[in-house]
Amino acid sequence: MLPPISDPNLLVNIETADDAGVFKLTDDIALVQTVDFFPPVVDDPYYYGQIVAANSLSDVYAMGGKPVTALNIVGFPKNKLSLDVLAEILRGGIDKAQEADCPIVGGHTIVDDELKFGLSVTGVVHPDRIITNANAQPGDKLILTKPLGMGILTTALKMGKVSEEIINKITSIMAELNKTAAELMVTFNAHAATDITGFGLLGHAHEIAHASNVSMLLNADSIPYLPEALEKIKEGGYIPGGSAENKKFLQDKVTFTDNIDEHEQMIFFDAQTSGGLLISISPEVVEEFLQSLHEKGVEHAAIIGEVTKSMKEEIRVER
Ligand code: CO
Ligand code: CO
Ligand code: CO
After folding, report:
1. Ion ligand 1 — residues with CB under 5 Å?
2. Ligand nearest to the CA of 62
3. Last residue of a domain, one of 125, 153, 170
C-alpha cells in the first residue's frame, strides 16, 4: 500500500481508481493530470503515435476536462530502429494532439530495449464540473462510445493474422479522439464516466460500480464489438494476457446469464487500447444524448445497460 495523500486541494486522488488526478488551483480552475505509455499496437509508426496520443488525451476527457498541454515520453531502441521511425511516431502524436487543440510542449527520450511511447497530459476542468467514477446513480443509463475487441485483434495483428481491412478499421477506431463524446457528456451533465482501456469494459464498469456503490445490469446484445474479434476468440490463440487476467480478477464481481457463452464473455473482458468512454447518465436525457453523439459522428455509441442499487452481484450481463 502506498501512503495516503491528503491535501484539501486534491479533489480526485487514486482512491476512486479514476482516470486522472485533479488538483484545485482556484475556485474556477482545477488541473487534470495523467500519464500513459505502451509498446506499439500497430506496425505503422505514424498511426502508433496517433493512437498513443488519443489514448493519453482520453483520460482528461474521461474526467470532463479539456486538455491544455502534453509532454512526450519515449523509450527508443536506437540500435534496432532508425530515427526516421521515431520521427514518424512523434509526428503522429503531434497531429493527434493538434486535433485536440493540445500542443506538445516538450518531452524526454531514453534509450530502451523495447520501443515505448506515451504522453503526459495536463488539462483543466471547473472544480464543480468534474466527472468522476464515484457519482453513478441508480436508474442511470450506461453508454459506451466505441466498439470492443481491440485487445484480441491487435494480438492477432502482431501474429500477422488479420486482413488489411481489419487493420485499417481498428487503427481508425483506436486513433479516434474521445473529444466529441466528452464535450457532449459535459453538456448533458453526465453523472460518472471513465474510458475503457486495459481493464476492459467489465473492469472499468467495476471501477465505477465500486466507487459509486451501485450495481449494473448490462445487455449483451447492445454492447458494440467487432464481430471479427469474436471469430478470433473462437479460432483460439489470440487472447492477450491482460484480458485473461481481467477475467480472473472479476470472477466474483461479474455474472452472466447461461446463454452468453465463454467466447462472447471474453469480448467483454478484453483489454482495450484507446477505447471509448463508458458514461453513466440520467434516463431523462439519455436518448437525446445518444442522438447527439450519433449526429456528431460518434457512430458506434450505444446504450448498453443501466445502473441499479447495490446488489449482491455487482455486475450482471444479461440476454
Ligand atoms: Co482511463
Ligand atoms: Co490511463
Ligand atoms: Co473518470
Report:
1. 19, 59, 195
2. 3
3. 125
Residue pLDDT, tens place only, 181-209 = 999 999 999 999 999 999 999 999 999 99
> How far apart are the CA of 59 and the centre of ligand 2, in A?
6
How many domains does one find in the chain? 2
Question: Measured in angstroms, how far is the CA atom of residue 154 from the centroid of ligand 1?
Answer: 19
Q: How far is the CA of 205 from the centre of ligand 1 (A)?
A: 12
- The pTM (predicted TM-score) of the whole model is 0.95
Same domain, 112 and 16: yes
Q: What is the pLDDT of residue 18?
A: 80
Q: Residue 1: pLDDT above 90?
A: no
- Taking the centre of ligand 1 as the mean of its atom positions, its distance from the CA of residue 27, in whole angstroms, is 25
CATH of residue 161: 3.90.650.10
Q: Which ligand is nearest to the CA of 21?
A: 3
Tell how far the Cα of 184 is from the centroid of ligand 2, in angstroms. Answer: 21
Distance CA 224, CA 270 (A): 13
* Local structure of residue 148 (DSSP, 8 states): B
Could you read off the pLDDT of 91-129 as tens digits, one per residue? Answer: 999 999 999 999 999 999 999 999 999 999 999 999 999
pLDDT at 26 over 80: yes
| Distances from the Cα of 23 to the Cα of 6, 31, 33, 65, 191, angstroms | 11, 5, 8, 12, 20
CA of 202 to the centre of ligand 1 (A): 13
Tell me if 63 is assigned to some domain. Answer: yes
Range of the structural domain that residue 263 is part of: 133-318
Per-residue b/e over 109-148, b at no fewer than 16 CB within 10 Å? eeeeeebbbbbbbbbbbebeebbbbbbbeeebbbbbbbbb
Q: Are residues 226 and 120 in the same domain?
A: no
**Packing angle, helices 45-61 and 83-99, rounded to 10:** 40
Can you give the pLDDT at residue 178? 98
Q: Using 50, 70 and 90 to split pLDDT, how confident is the model at 213?
A: very high
